[in-house]
Amino acid sequence: MIRVLLAEDQAMVRGALAALLALESDIDVVGAAPDGVAAWREVERLKPDVLVTDIEMPGLTGLELAQRIRRHELPVRVVIATTFARAGFLRRALDAGVGGYVLKDAPAEQLADAIRQVHRGGRAIDPQLAVDAWSEADPLNDRERQVLRLAGEGLTAGDIAAQLHLSAGTVRNYLSEAIGKLGAANRVEAYRTARQKGWL
User: Is this structure's pTM higher than 0.85?
Assistant: First the structure.
């Protein structure tokens, strides 16, 4: 049996995924978490074979979960199930060690097949998305991405500085770099561009 943990912040989607996977004779859904922090606790407690996670969740994102699993060298494989058909997200997911990337509007059996393939040590990625992922590189570094994401949430440079334990001047420098790299007129436009391309 393949032991699967689900991490999905929408209760209805979480329940539907659990019900669909329960129909598979070789997959056992051992737990479900409503956010990234709870998912990390369950990963440590349940030690599943495969984590199926959304990208955007409260607490920790699916990508941050994948990075943490890799950093702690846990034998847990990760499949992203998301609505984001964006090459930038896929590229970041692959960089984080994710084995599978499935869109939520794909047929249900595609998720089960992805889980099996990733469990065997393979990759399961939408082919067209994979081609797109390598067409345009993400110009932002991790810190620029972090600062731009917070700016996009409406935080001032001072708020961001306090939250990230940086000086306001350093935050402004990161924002300026991100705006320049994205060819944007201001932080709002830079945030929109980065979001649209899946770089945040």
Answer: no
Q: Are 5 and 35 in contact (CB under 8 A)?
A: no
Token reading at 94? 């692959």
Rg (CA), the chain: 18
Please give, one letter per residue, the 3-state secondary structure of the chain: CEEEEEECCCHHHHHHHHHHHHCCCCEEEEEEECCHHHHHHHHHHHCCCEEEECCCCCCCCHHHHHHHHHHCCCCCEEEEEECCCCHHHHHHHHHCCCCEEEECCCCHHHHHHHHHHHHCCCCEECHHHHHHHCCCCCCCCHHHHHHHHHHHCCCCHHHHHHHHCCCHHHHHHHHHHHHHHCCCCCHHHHHHHHHHCCCC
Rounded Cα distance between 153 and 132, Å, is 27
Q: What is the pLDDT of residue 133?
A: 63
Pairwise pLDDT comparison (41 vs 106), residue with the higher score? 41
